[in-house]
From TrEMBL:
<feature type="transmembrane region" description="Helical">
    <location>
        <begin position="102"/>
        <end position="120"/>
    </location>
</feature>
<protein>
    <submittedName>
        <fullName>UMF1 family MFS transporter</fullName>
    </submittedName>
</protein>
<feature type="transmembrane region" description="Helical">
    <location>
        <begin position="292"/>
        <end position="312"/>
    </location>
</feature>
<dbReference type="InterPro" id="IPR036259">
    <property type="entry name" value="MFS_trans_sf"/>
</dbReference>
<feature type="transmembrane region" description="Helical">
    <location>
        <begin position="71"/>
        <end position="90"/>
    </location>
</feature>
<dbReference type="Pfam" id="PF11700">
    <property type="entry name" value="ATG22"/>
</dbReference>
<keyword id="KW-0812">Transmembrane</keyword>
<feature type="transmembrane region" description="Helical">
    <location>
        <begin position="348"/>
        <end position="372"/>
    </location>
</feature>
<keyword id="KW-0813">Transport</keyword>
<feature type="transmembrane region" description="Helical">
    <location>
        <begin position="126"/>
        <end position="146"/>
    </location>
</feature>
<feature type="transmembrane region" description="Helical">
    <location>
        <begin position="21"/>
        <end position="46"/>
    </location>
</feature>
<feature type="transmembrane region" description="Helical">
    <location>
        <begin position="416"/>
        <end position="434"/>
    </location>
</feature>
<feature type="domain" description="Major facilitator superfamily (MFS) profile">
    <location>
        <begin position="257"/>
        <end position="451"/>
    </location>
</feature>
<dbReference type="GO" id="GO:0005886">
    <property type="term" value="C:plasma membrane"/>
</dbReference>
<dbReference type="InterPro" id="IPR020846">
    <property type="entry name" value="MFS_dom"/>
</dbReference>
<keyword id="KW-0472">Membrane</keyword>
<dbReference type="InterPro" id="IPR024671">
    <property type="entry name" value="Atg22-like"/>
</dbReference>
Length: 451
């Protein structure tokens, strides 16, 4: 053997193997995001609350009077407010350990257990269901914080848009597949000997089982990478986590581009998540469609979203992620404007609206994730993604609070959903101020071929 023969570089092969395993985090978690958070939870929670107080009654909790139609928005808002305090500590801890896949699956299984508990929400126990959802949403968001922090570890800067978009496509495929099964179960519940409530409850349970089962793949397939460039803080691992978090928050002023993007993301992602989580309520309560049809439309969004995520990634490869995200935000502005005037019970119009959402949904979110990763300094991936997801999982509270308040005062979901256009406009204006070249340079990352 020639001693001077070159040794094969196995890095790309190892990264590809880990990337394929990582895609299943989106495949698994999307079951909860689609079947539960996206379609069934909000209308079902409203129905349970109305069973308790009547359709025109009010829920009274801690001195507050809440319309049942606004309850899901307030539940999601509370979940996100709690995440602001919870996720950054999780991120700081995750950056200090090599066993990120173990932390990922632990939070996923906690979330899946809480989501499975929604099966027992029935009758008038809206408070129990609200608490179970908050726990599931918080744990699921923590899992995604850890998952997204793995993205920069298993991909180079030039690979990020493709890998992130493939993950979103897997999410749409996995979530859509289970949603198709649940669509049939809810639509054909009489034919299979179930009442509608039991069909919905079994669908909620199926999402929990799917989530827990498929998380085994990334758990087994992603290597335990040793942490790098962590802050030197004394004390135990939890103490060091709080210490590193504080050091990073103080150091954020050295990364103004990352801060500007986070501000932009705060607004436009608020709008995106609020539209998605309110779409089923809008379809059933405002436009008068049945749960089965809305579930089918959501399934259409999932299927179109696969192609949308891949399409946006390819366009970003030619023109850069920032320009493509901005184009997507223009699309979102058009969508909420059309929602203001879309006719009641016009199936074709509602389906076309779903197709439009599917095209821009996955692309904007997948590219936002990979674009932000370019501004993160090494060793702080989970901390920065924890700030990112404090504004993400379960929606950020500005959007849901706005939606809930506008509905409560206007008694209509049309102005509530149109009000979200302000979030897309503000997000786009802030994104225009992001200097991509400078942000990459400040973080010390390599410049992709196209930005």
């Amino acid at each position: 053997m020639n001693a001077s023969a070159p040794i094969a570089d196995l890095g790309p092969l190892n990264r590809a193997r880990e990337q394929r395993a990582w895609y299943f985090t989106d495949w698994a978690a999307s079951a909860f995001q689609t079947t539960v958070a996206g379609v069934l939870f909000a209308p079902y929670l409203i129905s349970v609350a109305e069973n308790a107080v009547g359709e025109h009654g009010r829920i009274h909790l801690l001195g507050l009077s809440i319309a049942p139609g606004s309850l899901p928005s307030y539940v999601i808002t509370l979940s996100t407010v709690l995440s602001v305090f919870f996720y950054p500590v999780i991120g700081a801890y995750a950056d200090r350990i090599a066993r990120k896949p173990d932390l990922l699956v632990a939070f996923s299984w906690i979330g899946a257990a809480a989501a499975g508990g929604l099966f027992f929400m029935s009758g008038e126990n809206w408070l129990y269901g609200s608490i179970a959802f908050i726990v599931a949403n918080l744990a699921g968001g923590a899992a995604i914080v850890v998952s997204d922090s793995i993205l920069p570890v298993i991909s180079t800067e030039d690979e990020r848009d493709r890998v992130s978009s493939n993950g979103w496509a897997y999410g749409y495929a996995g979530g859509g597949l289970l949603l198709a099964v649940n669509f049939l179960m809810v639509s054909l519940h009489d034919s299979i000997g179930l009442d509608k409530e039991m069909a919905v409850r079994l669908s909620l349970l199926s999402a929990a089982v799917w989530w827990a089962a498929f998380m085994v793949i990334p758990w087994r397939g992603i290597r335990r990478h040793e942490p790098v460039a962590v802050e030197a803080v004394e004390g135990g691992v939890l103490t060091r986590s709080f210490g590193q978090l504080w050091a990073t928050l103080k150091d954020l002023r050295n990364y103004p581009v990352a801060l500007t993007f986070l501000a932009a993301y705060l607004f436009f992602n608020d709008g995106i998540q609020t539209v998605i989580n309110s779409a089923s309520t809008f379809g059933t309560k405002e436009l008068g469609f049945g749960d089965g049809f809305v579930l089918g439309t959501y399934l259409l969004v999932q299927l179109v979203g696969i192609g949308g995520a891949i399409l946006f990634a390819r366009v970003a490869g030619r023109h850069g992620a920032k320009k493509v995200i901005l184009a997507g935000l223009v699309g979102w502005m058009a969508i909420v404007t059309v929602a203001l005037v879309v006719p009641e019970k016009k199936m074709v119009a509602f389906l076309l609206l779903g197709v439009a959402i599917g095209i821009v949904l996955g692309g904007t979110q997948a590219l936002a994730r990979s674009y932000f990763s370019l501004f993160i300094p090494r060793g702080k991936e989970a901390e920065y993604f924890s700030l990112y997801h404090a504004m993400d999982r379960g929606t950020s509270w500005f959007g849901t609070l706005t939606f809930g308040l506008v509905y409560q005062f206007a008694d209509s979901y049309r102005p509530a959903i149109f009000a979200l256009i302000a979030f897309f406009v503000l997000g786009a204006l802030l994104l225009l101020r992001v200097d991509t070249e400078r942000g990459i340079r400040e973080a010390g990352n390599a410049r992709p071929a196209v930005i």
